[in-house]
Amino acid sequence: xxxxxxxxxxxxxxxxxxxxxxxxxxxxxxxxxxxxxxxxxxxxxxxxxxxxxxxxxxxxxxxxxxxxxxxxxxxxxxxxxxxxxxxxxxxxxxxx
Length: 96
Known about the structure:
Shape: flat
Largest sheet: none
Order of helices and strands: HHH
CATH topology of the domain at 5-43: Histone, subunit A
Number of strands: 0
Strand content: under 5%
CATH class of the domain at 5-43: Mainly Alpha
Radius of gyration: 23 Å
Structural class: mainly alpha
């Protein structure tokens, strides 16, 4: 699959991003490199290879330990805009 201008503009519109001509050229090249890598991975023969279930060989996981690292007040005090319970962010979606 080639990343042509039509596909690139469609992806940019979906992600609500705008690029200069120089950025567009570089990003198109990088996207094509990613797709080439995916094609290479798809060509690998995995017949008879067991699926990887655990990253560590014995399959043991560490014990979960609950720790309170910060209080809600400590976290919210550095926010540019917050109410008593939540971060407040600008609206990014159009309501239609």
